[in-house]
Design brief:
This protein has 255 residues and is of the alpha/beta class. The chain is built from 9 helices and 10 strands. Strands 6-7-8-3-9-10 form a 6-stranded mixed β-sheet, with helices on both faces. A 4-stranded antiparallel β-sheet has the order 2-1-4-5, with helices on one face. It is globular.
């Protein structure tokens, strides 16, 4: 399996006087099997990078190579077998009138899998949900249970790479650690590559080996999590972010 490489990525919205440059000359690489974090304040461009990768924003330039595939304007079916995304709001990302069974079976069918019943049972087991959840609707699930379903749906095509867009920020604090630990276990078991967006340095400290710090659409520093914990920074904004983040002191409390 190959990883992910981005070179000189620019992403913008609008044109002419209304143009807004959301991502500016961003470059980074994530090796296969690694976990990489994008951190920064709201509006720094970190989620926009994930949307550019998945083809959800049309205006971009630069080069993106994902799982050995150089991305063009349109994503191929093979891309979506290799790359899946888990969104921030698990309720908004699930169809309110589809049961868990429909959500998973539709995904498996679209990607050409057989033995769908057995695969659904296995997916639910992998994310810590039993068979009793299979025919429930999203409104019958807690926030943590909905996010587990969203993770199961992302795993259904058997991807190599998961893009995680603040996957716990919409959840109660009491269940955030459960979902993070589930993601850690799944990465190890399935040898997945993660790219995670978060504003919480405790989360990226728990999940990732390396992070990119973003400010106003640009990466100002790429560093190891070990250096982050030791406050070994080279950019004043990174130092400010670390010092002002209450979540940073909670890194060691996530078990």
């Amino acid at each position: 399996m190959s990883g992910l490489g981005i070179s000189h990525l620019d992403v913008w919205f609008g044109s002419g006087h209304d143009r807004v440059d959301a991502v500016k000359d961003v470059s980074f690489r994530v090796d296969s099997g690694a976990s990489f974090g994008l951190v920064g304040e709201s509006g720094s461009g970190k989620s926009t990078i994930l949307r550019a990768l998945t083809g959800l924003v049309p205006n971009w330039s630069g080069e993106m190579i994902v799982a050995g595939e150089k991305l063009a304007r349109k994503r191929t079916a093979q891309f979506y077998k290799k790359v899946q995304m888990v969104f921030q709001d698990p309720y908004a990302s699930l169809h309110p009138r589809h049961t868990v069974d429909q959500v998973l079976s539709e995904t498996l069918y679209l990607h050409g899998f057989d033995a769908i019943d057995q695969r659904i049972v296995k997916l639910l087991d992998d994310v810590g949900l039993g068979p009793s959840f299979r025919f429930r609707y999203p409104h019958q699930l807690s926030g943590g249970q909905r996010q587990r379903v969203a993770i199961a749906r992302a795993l259904a095509p058997e991807p190599e790479i998961l893009l995680l867009d603040e996957p716990t920020s919409a959840l109660d604090v009491s269940v955030q650690a459960e979902i993070l630990n589930l993601l850690v276990d799944l990465r190890m078991a399935r040898k997945l590559t993660y790219v995670m967006v978060s504003h919480d340095l405790a989360v990226v400290g728990h999940m990732c080996e390396r992070i990119a710090v973003m400010q106003l659409g640009e990466i100002v520093e790429i560093m190891s999590v070990a250096d982050m914990r030791a406050m070994k920074t080279s950019h004043p904004y990174t130092k400010h972010l670390l010092e002002s983040s209450l979540g940073y002191k909670r890194v060691e409390n996530i078990a």
